Amino acid sequence: MATKTSKVDEQNDLSIEERLKVLYQLQRIDSKIDSIKRLRGELPLEVQDLEDAIQGLETRIQNYKNELTALDEQIAERKQGIKEAQSLIKKYDDQQKNVRNNREFDSITKEMEYQTLEIELCEKRIREHIQQKSDKATAIEQAQAQLAECNSDLEQKRTELENIVAETQKEEEELLKQSEGYMQLIEPRVLSAYKRIRNNARNGLAVVTVQRDACGGCFNKIPPQRQLDIKLRKKIIVCEYCGRIMVDDAIIGEPEQ
User: Fold this and answer.
1) Which range of residues forms the domain containing residue 46?
2) Among 191, 199, 190, residue whose Cα is nearest residue 235
3) How confident is the model at residue 251 (pLDDT cuts 50, 70, 90)?
4) CA-CA distance, 239 to 200, in Å (whole number)?
5) Does residue 198 fall inside a structural domain?
6) Is 180 among the domain residues?
7) Per-residue DSSP letter, 221
8) Is residue 163 part of a domain?
9) CA 141 to CA 54: how far, in whole Å?
10) Cβ contact 157:50 at 8 Å
């Protein structure tokens, strides 16, 4: 109970200027935490994208190989078809020597012509299949080159992610402790407003400085009298356009206490 009372007393003992400085320092720390999370948050997505790309390339390469096997089977079938047609032509040629009339001769001749056309068709299909095999082989080489590149990128991204996690984990934990310490200095009503503004702001900025006579969050112009009030630090002033808490830019160079 005594601890809770001391925190309230500490919050109440702070002047408006000190509260503004605390809010500004809290924002700086929380922005650093946001930056770490963004950096860490993008890399896992990149790693996932590369893993998906690799899986897709491996599936594509396997499909190409299956198609090559199917083409080899079709070529073998066409070659077998040529052998069978040649065998039939030889058979019809022998039969043609023993025909008894012109009708039988013409009938056998037509069969021989048909088998000859079958041979030509099979040879044409074989040439097409060979060309398709060449195209598939080229596609496999290209996909394998892409796969090697993706695997290299994936290894690099994974290493980068592991290093960032290792490097930033300690820093993030320290920043979180500092953030918690500053939050304890801010009265609940103001802290609640700070968190609400941060959640609603796309860039997570709840406390901004005045930059070139404009709000550092939404960049709308601030009247001179309002700028003067901000510089005096006698009260907490929010932007009438975006609702962010505003502080004068001189606070940036002031030492942290």
Assistant:
1) 36-184
2) 190
3) confident
4) 14
5) no
6) yes
7) B
8) yes
9) 15
10) yes
